[in-house]
Automatic annotation (TrEMBL):
The protein, known as: TIGR01777 family protein
Gene3D superfamilies, A to Z: 3.30.530.20, NAD(P)-binding Rossmann-like Domain
Domain NAD-dependent epimerase/dehydratase, first and last residues per copy: 175-385
Domain of life (superkingdom): Bacteria
UniProt similarity note: Belongs to the NAD(P)-dependent epimerase/dehydratase family. SDR39U1 subfamily.
Pfam families reported in the protein's UniProt record: DUF1731, Epimerase
Source species: Kocuria soli
Domain DUF1731 per the UniProt entry, residue ranges: 422-469
Annotated SUPFAM superfamilies: Bet v1-like (SSF55961), NAD(P)-binding Rossmann-fold domains (SSF51735)
Length: 484
């Protein structure tokens, strides 16, 4: 039986830290992007017998390969403690005891007892068996050291962020979120709920939890009472744009956004004025400025550009802005390239870079305006709480980079070369000429002017820091890692 122990001083009162862990979203916020992805948190949180479903990264794969991990909660040895036990996963056993000591300054004590599995489990070719040999004691200890360092940093940062946000407004809000099961939406819901706000999620299937509300944008179905309950409605839904821009796909991309937004606006309009939400926060994208903007700096004052995605954003934002006629505040969050190993463009690129085949795309001169996933969800939380922020908001880091610089920095973080240029024709093979121009080859130098004026503090303002945060530390290349 191997043991890993961690003791960290958090700098916030122990009861506050323990209660933070007992709220929905705590596991999602504490899971390092490179180490594990949360499929389903336990509900109610930390209830004895409740289970959480995750996928944990296989050592040596930079998060590109993940295997199932299911943990069951139990009461801990003290009133402020709890235990997680693995019931399915890549190890023989796993017991994690969390203890919260102290009073005004919390000390978090973590103890993990585990046993590794031998080789390939007798030739088992499923995901767990194939990668069991990667979870050696040395690999597990290394992952745990980095994981708990990142967990502590995230916990401190989130607690500090909640305290700073309370200075803008200390109200506890009711927040209804569409798209809460997505990559960004799940993190937004988690950050807001761990901050003490009441969050309900719009789901298209039958609700499975007390905090879920069914809706069907295609059929125009949304409970008016759920919208009346909310102080703020947040909408992040929409079909993926990472596809060929065929007429059918274009229609799906547009209608998935405007139809659902229209439904929310109509539902708000049907309510008595004193029952309407105070604000509507809706997603958008920097595609609003067009695909090829040269070197000029794009602020929120810039007019809409040309191209399919610009037209989608124009229409989407216009539908959302209709709530302003109802006396509601409206914010359209124009998101740049989201950097996270959990999904999106970065996750797609990782296997290529791990194999030493990464490099500049289409010459590499185009500007990429990016944002870390952590900063993006903080932006959403800020505009939800801060009633002074209105209209379009550029959700990008303050330092955009040329694509060639992005390629070089990603390769450096992964300890790989970036010497294989990708010709402009390559993205067109996958996305078509129009899709390649507006996605892979888009040239947008965007500035977060509104956020900076509002005093928003970026946690990851520089590309190197953002990539280091979302990717695990790696040593020199090894053949097996490159093949994984």
């Amino acid at each position: 039986m191997a043991v890993f122990e961690s003791t960290e001083h958090i700098g916030h009162p122990a009861d506050r830290v323990f209660q933070w862990h007992r709220r929905p979203g705590a596991l999602t916020r504490l899971s390092p992007e490179w180490a594990q992805s949360v499929l389903e948190e336990s509900y109610p949180p930390l209830a004895p017998g409740a289970r959480a479903r995750l996928r944990t990264s296989v050592p040596g794969t930079a998060g590109t390969v993940r295997v199932p991990f299911v943990a069951e909660h139990d009461d801990g040895p003290t009133p402020r403690s709890f235990v997680d036990r693995m019931v399915k996963g890549p190890l023989k056993s796993w017991t994690h005891t969390h203890v919260f000591d102290g009073e005004q300054s919390c000390v978090v004590r973590d103890r993990v007892e585990y046993e590794v599995l031998p080789g390939r489990l007798g030739g088992d070719r499923n995901a767990l068996g194939k990668y069991a040999g990667r979870f050696t004691d040395r690999a597990v200890q290394s992952m745990l050291t980095k994981t708990f360092a990142d967990r502590t940093a995230q916990l401190r940062a989130d607690l500090d962020f909640h305290a700073a946000l309370a200075e803008r407004s200390d109200r506890r809000l009711n927040i209804l979120i569409g798209g809460a099961s997505g990559l960004v939406g799940s993190q937004v819901a988690a950050l807001l709920s761990t901050g003490g706000h009441s969050v309900r999620r719009l789901v298209r299937g039958e609700p499975q939890r007390a905090d879920e509300v069914r809706w069907d944008p295609a059929r125009g179905q949304l409970e008016a009472s759920a919208v009346a309950w909310a102080d703020v409605v947040v909408h992040l839904g929409g079909a993926s744009i990472a596809t060929r821009f065929t007429p059918k796909n274009k229609q799906k991309i547009l209608s998935s956004r405007v139809d659902s937004t229209d439904l929310i606006v109509r539902t708000c309009a049907a309510l008595p004025s004193d029952e309407r939400p105070e604000a509507f926060v809706c997603a958008s994208a920097v595609g609003a400025y067009g695909a090829d903007c040269g070197d000029r700096v794009l602020t929120e004052e810039e007019p809409y550009g040309e191209g399919f995605l610009a037209e989608v954003c124009r229409e989407w934002e216009a539908r959302a802005a209709a709530v302003e006629n109802l006396g509601m505040r409206r914010v359209s969050v124009r998101t740049g390239l989201v950097l996270t190993s959990l999904g999106g463009l970065l996750r797609v690129q990782l296997p290529l870079y791990l194999a030493g085949m990464g490099g500049p795309v289409g010459g590499g001169r185009q500007w990429q305006s990016w944002i870390s996933l952590d900063d993006l969800v903080r932006i959403y939380a800020t505009v939800v709480v801060d009633g002074a922020v209105t209209g379009p908001v550029n959700a990008v880091a303050p330092h955009p980079v040329r694509q060639s610089q992005f390629a070089a920095e990603l390769a450096r973080t992964l300890h790989r070369p970036a010497v294989v240029p990708v010709p402009r024709v390559a993205p067109a093979v996958l996305l078509g000429q129009e899709g390649a121009k507006e996605l892979a080859l888009a040239n947008q130098r965007v500035a977060p002017t509104v956020l900076e004026a509002a005093g928003f503090s970026f946690r990851h303002p520089d590309l190197r820091d953002a990539l280091t945060w979302t990717l695990p530390p790696r040593g020199p290349a090894d053949p097996e890692s490159a093949r994984a």
